[in-house]
Amino acid sequence: MRGTGQFFVGGNWKCNGTKQQVAQLLEQLNKGKVDSSIEVVIAPTFIHLPHVLDTADSRFEVGAQNCWSSGTGAYTGEISAEQLADLGVKWVILGHSERRSLLKESNEFVGEKTAYALSHGLRVIACIGETLEQRESGQMYNILDAQLEALANQISDFDNVVIAYEPVWAIGTGKVATPDQAEEVHLHIREWFTERIGEKDAEALRIVYGGSVNEKNAAELAAKEDVDGFLVGGASLKADAFVTICNAHTAATPVAA
Ligand SMILES: O=C(CO)COP(=O)(O)O
Question: What ipTM does this complex have?
Answer without folding.
Answer: 0.99
